[in-house]
Amino acid sequence: MNKLLGFAALLSCFVASNAFAQAAINFDGLNFPCISYNIASAQAAGRPVTLTRTTNAATIAANRAASCGGTAADVAALNVAGGPGTPASCDEYPFASSLQGGAGAQALIVPAFENNAQGGALAQFYLANGIVNGTAYNVTTSNVPAIGGGPGQLTIVVLPSGNRQCYY
Predict the structure, then answer these.
(1) Which of 4, 16, 46, 163 has its CA at a distance of 20 to 30 angstroms from the CA of residue 89?
(2) Is the Cβ–Cβ distance between 24 and 138 less than 8 Å?
């Protein structure tokens, strides 16, 4: 009987520890080359893996302005000039829709279509996993491309302003 109770206790601990596991979203570099690079390099520089969602529109707007506001002139100029990686937009990590976003986030100018796809993937993840205001979740990356400009590699350009642009 003790063995059965011990097994039941072990099983209940296993279920309890996994019942509260945080949902995770992965950005695969095969689908999100510049985005996965930005997230991976930001995390390597000490930005958090675990984020907490905010749905407060004012907080999200303030976070986006604090993290990407300094790139607006570069994004506009790149989009007028055309060229690699355009149309462009600013990606930030941690996300503006997280409590960790805003000042101190890492900004990178990326192809706009990739940034738009990331926004859709994140919205779908929030919905599918019940990630509501105040819910914590993890962000991971896989297959992050190397930098170098060769086949399958990313090009990272430091613009005169000091902002960085990613394209492939």
Answers:
(1) 46
(2) yes
CA atoms within 13 A of residue 66's CA, in its CB half-sphere = 19
**Which residue, 151, 143, 161, 124, is CA-closest to 34?**
143
Q: Whole-angstrom Cα distance, residue 18 to residue 29?
A: 28
Whole-number pLDDT of residue 20: 60
Smallest Cα–Cα separation from 108: which of 27, 44, 153, 41? Answer: 41
Confidence (pLDDT) at 18? 41
d(CA 101, CA 98): 5
| Token reading at 157 | 């350009």
Strands 136-142 and 155-158: unpaired
Per-residue tokens: 15: 């279920």
pLDDT at 65: 98
Following DSSP, what letter does each residue of 6-23 receive, concatenated? HHHHHHHHHHHHHHTPPP
DSSP E strands: which ranges in 29-105?
50-52, 88-93
- At 80 the pLDDT is 98
pLDDT at 21: 81
Q: Which residues in the chain show pLDDT less than 50?
A: 1-19
Instruction: Give the Cα separation of 47 and 50 in Å (integer).
Output: 9
CB atoms within 10 A of CB 46: 8
Q: Give pLDDT, residue 41.
A: 98
